[in-house]
Amino acid sequence: MSSPLSASVTFSALLEPGGPSFMPTQVVIVPLDVVAALGGKATRRVVGTLNGYAVRLGLMPLSSGERYLMVNKDTCKAAGLHLGQQLTVTLAPDPTPDAVDLPAELAEGLADWPEAAAGFEQLTGGMKRAIAYHIDTAKRPETRLNRTVQVLRQLAVGGHPFRAPKD
Q1: What topology does CATH give the domain 9-93?
Q2: pLDDT tens digit sequence for 41-58
Q3: Could you tell me which of 85, 88, 90, 89 has the C-alpha nearest to residue 16?
């Protein structure tokens, strides 16, 4: 992961419960002045640190104009963070917002299957990240491989990566 840019903003924030109703998680509210310093509504992804732990996340909108960062439980565990904790947050606009860190299985499959790679390139950055996360979160190697093959097959025939083919 790249280090935060020199044009970064540091602020203090609380790690609190939140997120969309269908996906309760931990969040960090990014105040309006910080959102403005990061480039306003145009900035959708950021790099930085939470108490010194490097992160690369999306800025999610709030109706107040503020933004928030969703911090999943794996990140909290790795960084030693807990709900109610005061954090030192440093953020900068992500210099490569469309870049996706691919699991090895997916990268290899895309390199070997040009039709699937072409389908993958047609997807949004968010969908690419969702696929990478879906494969990367499998605990067993067999599951990772099965998920990879399933996604690649769908992409190769122009299908949706998470929906079964229609017979």
Answers
A1: Elongation Factor Tu (Ef-tu); domain 3 (2.40.30)
A2: 888 999 999 999 999 999
A3: 85
